[in-house]
Amino acid sequence: MVRIKRGTVSLKRRRKVLKQTKGFKWGRKSKERAAKEALLHAYTHAFNDRRKKKGVFRRLWQIKINAAARQNDISYSKLIDLLKKGEIKIDRKILANLAEHKPEVFKEIIEKAKK
Question: What fold is seen in the domain 8-114?
């Protein structure tokens, strides 16, 4: 049988790990074992934070909608209730965008919801 030397594959894998840990502090950027451990934790946080990000944006949209709604003499909760009762299906992301960039359209939506 032919002897297979696996050094290149191992070295390539290690270099890939060290390349991903660029910018980490102390031995986590240069020592293979510490780097691998650091990456495992980093991947976990990245995965979780991608989900948390969605909640952060939703809170931001609520703040923008509330601010614009109060300028039109209505609270956020009452506005959302009116929209649901009026069967106006428009999500918070779009509402926040309208509230920020097109207040006249936002005002029309409020008027339509009140009827």
Answer: c-terminal domain of poly(a) binding protein (1.10.1900)
